[in-house]
Write a structure and sequence with these properties.
Blueprint lengths: L2 H14 L2 H20 L4 H16 L7 H15 L3
Length: about 80
């Protein structure tokens, strides 16, 4: 079954589920919901993302191509690898 089909079935089920079943489902996924949505309630986190986005759109920060990133990562690994 495709992901989209699963989502649709779950949405329909949740829309029609009784209170007891809704609470049970929520209890199962509550921690994950908090983990994924909690950051968006953190004002410092959101402000930092907005600052970085603004810098990126203005062309201010130094960016690296994929090749440059891979090269830098390989160099860093060589420095910490035991000889």
């Amino acid at each position: 079954m495709k992901t989209q089909d699963i989502k649709q079935k779950l949405h329909r089920y949740i829309e029609n589920a009784n209170e007891k079943k809704l609470k049970a489902i929520y209890t199962m996924v509550e921690e994950e919901i908090e983990e994924t949505t909690g950051l968006w309630n953190d004002e410092e986190f959101v402000a930092e993302l907005e600052r970085r986005e603004k810098e990126y759109l203005n062309g201010t920060p130094k960016t690296f191509s994929l090749q440059e990133t891979e090269t830098r990562a390989r160099q860093a690994i060589k420095k910490v690898k035991p000889k």
